[in-house]
Design goal:
The structure holds 2 protein chains of 2 kinds. By secondary structure, chain A is mainly β. Helix content of chain A is about 5%, strand content about 35%. Chain B has a single domain, classed as Thiolase/Chalcone synthase (Peroxisomal Thiolase, Chain A, domain 1, 3-Layer(aba) Sandwich).
């Protein structure tokens, strides 16, 4: 990691910094609105459902389902994973969806199924940036 | 139909269309030159001069100013809406609004893109601090070839849509391209060819994916009254619609249907006062084979989940029941990166009866529909030579 990572590297912004700081501590965080109850991802300082400013960070359980996926055979420049690899749209147990690299499963349509159970794992890209990835749930 | 929509129906017409002098590989031309060639050809087709143009709509540049500067036009109305490839279809709706408001009379909608040769193209879009890099590119997303597939996979899961059904679209579209001398890829292909072409991002093989070419395209929109004084039959804009639901595909509201297109199509049909059954010829942006299948569902040509069966048996091919993408589409005719303008050019030519061997008999009512971004935006246009 650290000195060798050459793929797309997130640079946190003021509203996303808490997410990346938590990821470094191996916590997956989303936001919740105290006015309308919406839980959402990606990070924004106002609720995208009702524009309330009464939003707070909560820890997600890390349990999720694979809503849909593709198997990429042409990695972007510098992406450190050999093709083919799986990219999923992951639906968190709490509701929000996010894109993520799916690991721990063969990049083969026969090995993957929409709605299969997943759990979060974390991977350090650099000393600053740790990304959440998902793998098939061990207890599923 | 509301009174306001009724007032817009048929209020403007497309008076001229044109492509760049050649399409495909143009190492001899910058993106701006492709704009200029298409504009020249569209104005000639309309029987108008550059001096008649008082509005310019374009997209895909860093600033919308550089195209009018290059063309030597000083527009008094400028449209630079950028929502991806369908932007030029939205521009027709925006030009209609501006013309009806009395802010301009002759609108040039122009596209030029050096998608293959990359000459004089804007710099890449996403910085390291963009939401795209932080929440998508870091996971190995490769933009459209991966993003469009998410909906295909979920659609296959929920409805049993197959890769063979998707391949039907590629094969049928190639048959149309064989009839278009301007098309880039004209050799016949089979369903097996599509399924055995190399994988790009499962569920897409190479032949499920659009071309990457260099080309320009333009059209001239003016008031119905002005259009009637011009040499060619006006193609009246009967209905338009647009919608955007997200930018990053991970924020797409649902992955089993195309929400932006549902909204866009509903207004276009309501304004036009017609139904899908009335349509004679369809130009549906085919960035990937799944896209027209979802357009058919979203626009009401079939029920949700029935898009795959709809295209089966080469139904959209020449001689088929539902002529679609009669220029050869983004899959086989041309795809610069932002294909939307080419749906308009082909619809106008079909309605005028200018399409030679690929002419659809008695084509009186045409629909154009496009996607922008990654299923992010949609725009619809219904047009006819009859009001």
């Amino acid at each position: 990691m650290a000195d060798t990572y050459s793929g797309p590297l997130p640079k946190p912004t003021p509203e996303t910094r808490p997410f990346w700081d938590a990821a470094k501590q191996r916590r997956l965080t989303i936001q919740a609105c105290d006015d309308c109850g919406t839980r959402y991802f990606y990070p924004r300082p106002l609720c995208p459902a009702c524009l309330s400013r009464r939003v707070r960070w909560i820890d997600a359980s890390g349990r999720a389902r694979l809503h849909t996926f593709v198997i990429n055979h042409r990695p972007p420049r510098g992406f450190p994973v050999a093709a083919p690899f799986v990219i999923g749209i992951v639906e968190l147990e709490e509701g929000p969806r996010m894109m993520s690299h799916i690991v721990g499963v063969a990049p083969d349509p026969a090995a993957l199924r929409c709605d299969m159970a997943l759990e979060v794992v974390f991977e350090d890209l650099t000393a600053e940036i740790t990304v959440p990835k998902f793998r098939p749930r061990s207890d599923a | 139909m509301s009174a306001d929509l009724r007032r817009l129906r048929g209020s403007v017409a497309i008076a001229g269309v044109g492509e760049s002098d050649a399409l495909g590989k143009r190492p001899d031309a910058s993106a701006l030159q492709l704009h200029m060639e298409a504009t020249f050809n569209a104005l000639a087709d309309a029987g108008l001069s550059k001096r008649d143009v008082d509005a310019v709509f374009t997209s895909g540049r860093n600033m919308a100013n550089d195209v009018p500067e290059y063309l030597g036009i000083r527009p008094r109305f400028i449209g630079g809406t950028q929502v991806g490839g369908c932007s030029f279809i939205l521009h027709v709706e925006h030009a209609m609004a501006a013309i009806n408001a009395g802010l301009c009379e002759v609108a040039l909608i122009t596209h030029g893109e050096s998608g293959y040769s990359r000459i004089s193209m804007p710099a890449p879009r996403w910085g390291d601090d963009s939401t795209n890099t932080q929440f998508e590119l870091v996971h190995g997303s490769a933009g459209p070839p991966t993003g469009y597939g998410f909906l295909a996979t979920r659609h296959m899961h929920e409805y049993g849509t197959t890769k063979t059904q998707m391949a039907e679209v590629a094969v049928a579209t190639r048959k149309w391209a064989a009839l278009n001398p301007k098309a880039f890829a004209r050799d016949p292909i089979t369903i097996d060819d599509v399924l055995s072409s190399r994988l790009i991002a499962w569920p897409f093989n190479l032949l499920d994916c659009c071309l990457v070419t260099d080309a320009g395209g333009a059209c001239i929109v003016t008031s119905a009254e002005r259009a009637r004084d011009l040499p060619k039959a006006p193609v009246y804009v009967l209905g338009t619609g647009e919608c955007a639901t997200h930018q990053m595909v991970s924020q797409m509201p649902a992955f089993n249907r195309w929400d932006a297109a549902i909204v866009s199509g509903e207004r276009a049909f309501r304004m036009a006062g017609v139904t899908p059954a009335d349509i004679d010829v369809a130009q549906f942006y085919d960035a990937f084979t799944i896209v027209p299948i979802l357009a058919l569902e979203a626009l009401g040509f079939c029920k949700p989940g029935e898009g795959g069966p709809f295209v089966t048996g080469q139904r959209t091919a020449p001689g088929g029941e539902f002529p679609m993408n009669t220029n050869g589409g983004g899959l086989s005719y041309t795809h610069t990166g932002m294909y939307g303008i080419f749906t308009i050019i082909e619809a106008v030519r079909q309605l005028r009866g200018e399409c030679g061997p690929r002419q659809v008999a008695d084509a009186r009512l045409a629909i154009c529909h496009g996607t922008g971004g990654i299923w992010s935006a949609a725009a619809t246009l219904i047009a006819s030579t009859e009001r």
